[in-house]
Amino acid sequence: MNALATAASTPAASAGAAAAAARGPLVAADLARDFPILSRPVRGKRLVYLDNGATTQKPEAVIEAERRFYRESNANIHRGVHWLSQHATDLYEQARERVQRLLNAARADEIVFTRGTTEAINLVAYSWGRANLKAGDEIVLTGMEHHSNIVPWQLICEQTGAVLKVVPLTDRGELQLDAYEALLGPRTRLVSVVHVSNALGTVNPVARMIERAHAVGAKVLVDGAQAVAHQGVDVQALGCDFYAFSGHKLYGPTGIGALYGRRELLAAMPPWQGGGDMIRTVSFERSTWADAPQRFEAGTPNIAGAVGLGVAIDYVTAIGLDRIAEHEHRLLAHATEAAQRIPGLRLIGTAAHKAGILSFVVDGIHPHDLGTILDAEGVAIRAGHHCAMPVMTRFGIPGTARASFALYNDENDVAALVAAIARAQQMFGGPPR
Ligand code: PLP
User: Does residue 65 contact residue 307 with C-beta atoms inside 8 Å?
Assistant: First the structure.
């Protein structure tokens, strides 16, 4: 384990090493050594992991934190009178404070732990949505939403009679902001928008969109699944009402994520799932509810996952999200230039403001075939609709190949990607002349 990983797993010892590591451009190859899986070969080749939009790999510090939790701290939380239960509760609540700091939320009780982004959005849909939406109300989504920010709203529309309005995309994969503003009106109750598109890489101007939505009295949920690992997020500066993300896309464990909700909103929202831990009193006549966030955390949560997520947050914070963002922007610019030199390759998503996602199609090769051939070269990318089928329909394609970058990727990974694409083109009879 290198110095940074050790520092991240033991916060008390982190200041010196983290400060030393947090100067100048980051060196991806050094950080890659913190991620054990990256040194395993795949199909006899060096693993070139470019599927970070789907999930990121985990540093040793996070793996070790989960292991150590089960070895030294495991007990159920909130209910126990014994020392271990109180210790586990402290660790879980400290993880909530780390999420609070990551998002710059005003208070820790504005953070609800969930299984991930999908569950966070469903929580808002089933709790806030069912309590606040009625027939004729409008929910504004965009044409680049992940299915997890479309389907919950469709289900709620079926139950409440509310209707969906969709902001169209430009040919570059940006939102048509004039169309967005035209969609907003007195019936708009909610805008639910992705911060960074997983299919296109577009970074949306969410601060401006939130301001416009608030001007018509609508609430705003931001899907931050592809944002939190790649740039600093400040929910108070954004002014959003809800913000959702997944730990596993932030170098943390699977099965844990969080919803930020403004305190007054969470306080007024009814439970969406019933069970232990979310109640104040229970009788067969009537039950009463705990305050937020416990009201929304029925049952035993993923305690070890929350602890691991806290360590993942320490890890990226010690490196610096601004340095990670700079590194990934440089890498994306380099990869974009390299991709544009490949004959027959077309980028899907060329917005002016993008995060580290390169989506593309190659003439004459189905994205799934391309993904399979790249895999044989040790290059892991994603191929398909990326759970964003409306984006594929908009661009008239069945899917794309997608390379998505993380802090441990560098130019060597891009070179491997480019070489593997050339190999695929040769197998399919050579690139177009
Ligand atoms: N939103 C976006 C933009 C995503 O990219 C994803 C996952 O790829 C999700 C939501 C869903 O995240 P999860 O499956 O972790 O709940």
Answer: yes
Residue nearest to atom 12 of ligand 1 (CA): 117
> Residue 361: how many CB atoms within 10 A of its CB?
20
Cα of 59 from ligand 1 centre, angstroms: 21
Query: Considering 387, 389, 397, 418, which one is annotated as catalytic?
Result: 387
Kindly list the distances between the CA atom of residue 162 and the CA atoms of 165, 247, 339, 369, in Å, as whole numbers in the listed order: 10, 31, 43, 41
Which residues sit opposite 101 in a β-bridge? none
| Distance in Å, CA 251 to ligand 1 centroid | 14
Predicted confidence (pLDDT) per residue in 405-433, tens digit: 999 999 999 999 999 999 999 999 888 77
Residue from 55, 142, 148, 226 whose mutation best tests the ligand 1 pocket (most atoms within 8 A of CB): 148
The C-alpha atoms of residue 84 and residue 332 are separated, in whole angstroms, by 46
Closest CA to 54 of 411, 309, 383, 301: 383
Neighbours of 322 (CB within 10 A): 11
From 387, 391, 400, 404, the mutation candidate for ligand 1 (largest count of ligand atoms within 8 A of CB) is 387
Question: Rounded to an integer, what distance in angstroms lies between the CA atom of residue 147 and that of residue 361?
Answer: 21
Whether the model clears a pTM of 0.90, i.e. scores above it, the answer is yes
Gap from CA of 423 to ligand 1 centroid (Å) = 31
The Cα 211–Cα 220 span in angstroms is 9
Give the type of residue at 374.
Answer: L
Name the residue of 118, 192, 359 whose CB sits within 8 Å of the most ligand 1 atoms, as the mutation to test its pocket: 118
387 is a catalytic site residue:
yes
What are the tens digits of pLDDT across the range 42-99? 999 999 999 999 999 999 999 999 999 999 999 999 878 999 999 999 999 999 999 9
Compute how many other C-beta atoms are within 10 angstroms of the C-beta atom of residue 208: 12
Can you list the domains of the chain with their CATH numbers?
Answer: 35-50+320-427 (3.90.1150.10), 66-317 (3.40.640.10)
| Sign of the C-alpha dihedral computed for residues 416, 417, 418 and 422 taken in this order | positive
